[in-house]
Fold this protein.
Amino acid sequence: MTSTTRNRLLAIAATIGLGALAYTQTQAPAKLSTVKLADNMYVIHNDFVPGNTTILITNEGVIMVDDKYPVDADNIVAEVKKLTNQPIKYVINTHHHGDHSGGNPTMQKLGAIAVSSDQARKNMIAGKQPGLTNITIEREGHIYLGGEQVDLYYFGRAHTNGDIVALFPKQRILATGDTYANDPGTPELVDFDGGGSAIEWPKTLTKELTLNFDRAVPGHGTVASKAELAKFRDSTQRLSTKVHDMLKAKRTKAEVEKVVRSEFGFQDFHVQASLDGLMKELK
Ligand SMILES: [Zn+2]
């Protein structure tokens, strides 16, 4: 295993809160690069893991989706400063994992209001995470700032039990959090401890796909089209059907492991983190 791979897996372990690794961080700050999405809208991307922060700049402040690990927060603020003097007004956490909400204490100190689902906030409390969100939504919420709008939706369980997506209707862009990942190093990963579900995941994505957007910013990976998100939804359905059918046919755990590795991109870490949970849920 290369050290990059090991670091990457450690980081993912931290994000899904496995045992003693919960919310710990062992890595140095990620190297960030900013990609333009639309007028006044950008993704701050890092190669490491690789995660995405989405920002929309308005004339009354900045709206941000996900703020990575605590160690990255100052660098994210510096990236935003390169683009605008506007303050960061809202930070939306798509879910409770440390690589999506870890920057909250820094952003809140700067005056930002953090927003998540009710459930994600409960998960943050359970994980003793700092920087709890200030506003929560149950099913749907809207933020209006500087003539811009962001629509927040909770569509059900997927990666965790508290995932929300953020729709920028004018820009026709959806920030999906970890309900969608398209990097080969981050396959579909159900955080069972965090209430995730392989059965519900495709249903949740089907609801996401009813929204009006052209491009999706995944939690991990590169900006994609709506059609690519639909393809990922199909693959989450395929995984769940395949494992269920194998278990019904009395296939062994080793056989299931072989399939999730060869067909769904699982590596050692993903097998260790979620194979037992998949077998339990999909039997
Ligand atoms: Zn996550």
Observations:
- Residues 35 and 222 are 10 Å apart (CA to CA).
- The pocket of zinc ion is lined by residues 15, 95, 97, 159, 178 (CB under 6 Å).
- The chain has one domain: 3-281.
